[in-house]
Specification:
Elements lengths: L1 H4 L5 H14 L7 E2 L2 E2 H16 L1 H5 L1 H5 L1 H21 L3 H21 L2 H26 L27 H20 L5 H4 L1 H21 L2 H17 L7 H21 L6 H9 L9 H12 L6 H4 L11 H12 L8 H9 L1 H25 L4 H20 L12 H23 L7
Antiparallel strand pairs: 1-2
Length: 442
């Protein structure tokens, strides 16, 4: 711990990382450098600067992260490389994964520093709030110019998406911010820095605006993710000295405010769509039908389906082959869509070994955070941050369970939150071990 945290966090490396975090929440509006989005280049720039300025501590992060997470990351990279070489999979997938792993690494390093955590959360909350304000404006028939970079531009359809391509992408930004800010507002503010009234008002405002943006986007999985995350935070709150009655009161007030807002703005575009989508949950193929449809496909294609199955223009394995036909039949019965579950989609496009490594990595990071909270029972700012970050990651995990995009499949924001969570888990664990403040094995 000491070796990794020695010295100050280099601001020269922090700045490009913060710009990238902001741009990842408004991706359609980011600049391009040739075919590469600016935020991707900024992540690699931040990593290069950390390697140059803090080479020993940056690579020393391997011992801080632990053997098993790094092994699982290597399995993901090797599995994706195999797919690229064996099946002519677009090299873009491998580059996306490499960028995600680098984002995870940089985020983990920066999150070990208090100033790094604060700046990262501040930038993320600011950009998410702006995007969600735009979504509410879109629902009210305003900000018409913002539609031009959504998938609905030039079509008769329109569903509020903020400064993102479409609603699920907005939800990927919003659910983590909502879960984190709601949780942090509810934390018992013993520390002066956390008790600041302007800070609390800002966090509460971010949560409220983001909730409204999520509601008008009609993202059921996003709303479910936030609800489940807050229930977990509620259950684990006493472990970090949180007044449970306070979080219950805040949650009730938030629900009343949101309910009143929905009554006032019940005519907003998106509200009727959300109501219809909630009524259709039982018939949604993502409620279980996708597993029965695609598990036979995965069993027949354990290394991933051939590219010719989903790319009709690609010359490769015949589309009449049984393995290919199984995939085509499953998608037809699934209304023409992929599974809309991050694990099933990963199995199909990356192969079962890579998907298992990714799933285990995700679960391991969440499990370690929960175990540290249960074992350490630390009523400190680090413990509070860890609980909030756990809530954010659970919200993202639930949301990704109903969509194809995930950290493995091009959704970079998940890598940032995973790095944030793992760094806090290991940091709290080692700090309390050093101070002899453990209750049991931490």
């Amino acid at each position: 711990m000491t070796s990794v945290m020695s010295g100050r966090l280099p601001m020269l490396a922090l700045l490009p990382f913060l710009f990238a975090v902001g741009l990842f929440t408004i991706q359609p509006w980011s600049l391009q450098v040739g075919p590469i989005p600016l935020q991707v280049l900024l992540i690699w720039l931040s990593a290069a600067l950390l390697m140059a300025l803090r080479v020993r501590t940056f690579f020393g992060l391997t011992t801080h992260i632990g053997f098993m997470p790094i092994l699982l990351l290597l399995v993901m990279v090797m599995g994706t490389t195999y797919r690229v070489l064996d099946n002519n999979l677009e090299a873009l997938r491998l580059f996306q994964l490499a960028t995600g792993v680098m984002l995870f690494w940089v985020s983990a390093y920066i999150s070990l520093f208090e100033e790094g955590r604060r700046w990262t959360i501040a930038v993320l909350m600011a950009f998410v709030s702006i995007s969600c304000v735009v979504a509410v404006a879109q629902a009210a028939g305003l900000a018409g110019w913002t539609w031009q970079r959504t998938i609905y531009f030039g079509t008769s359809m329109s569903q509020p998406s903020g400064l993102e391509y479409y609603p699920p992408a907005l939800a990927y930004s919003a659910v983590g911010a909502i879960a984190f800010s709601l949780s942090l507002v509810a934390v018992r503010t013993k520390e002066r820095a956390l008790a600041s009234l302007p800070l609390l008002l800002w966090l509460a405002g971010t949560a409220l605006v983001s909730c409204l943006g999520l509601l008008v986007s009609a993202s059921r999985s996003g709303l479910a993710g936030v609800a489940i995350a807050e229930m977990v935070v509620f259950v684990m709150a006493p472990l970090v000295g949180l007044n449970v009655r306070r979080i219950a009161t805040i949650s009730l007030v938030a629900a009343v405010v949101l309910g009143a807002a929905l009554m006032v703005y019940s005519e907003l575009e998106g509200m009727d769509r959300l109501s219809v989508k909630i009524d259709e949950v039982e018939d949604d193929y993502r409620a279980g039908k996708n597993w029965s449809l695609f598990l036979p496909v995965i069993a027949a294609n354990p290394w991933g389906v051939p590219r010719s199955a989903y790319d009709a223009g690609f010359i490769g394995q015949s589309r009449n082959d049984r393995a290919v036909q199984l995939y085509l039949k499953a998608t037809r019965e699934n209304a023409g869509f992929d599974p809309h579950n991050f694990f099933l989609t990963s199995c199909i496009y990356f192969g079962l070994p890579t998907a298992l490594a990714f799933g285990l990595f995700y679960v391991l990071v969440l499990y370690r955070a929960g175990r540290v909270l249960i074992s350490c029972r630390s009523s400190t700012p680090e413990g509070w941050y860890l609980l909030c970050a756990l809530g954010a990651n659970i919200a993202l995990f639930v949301h990704a369970s109903f969509h194809n995009a995930s950290p493995l499949f091009g959704e970079m924001r998940g890598w940032m939150w995973l790095g944030f969570l793992l760094a806090l888990s290991r940091s709290l664990n080692q700090n309390l071990s050093g101070r002899g403040e453990l209750r049991g094995q931490c």
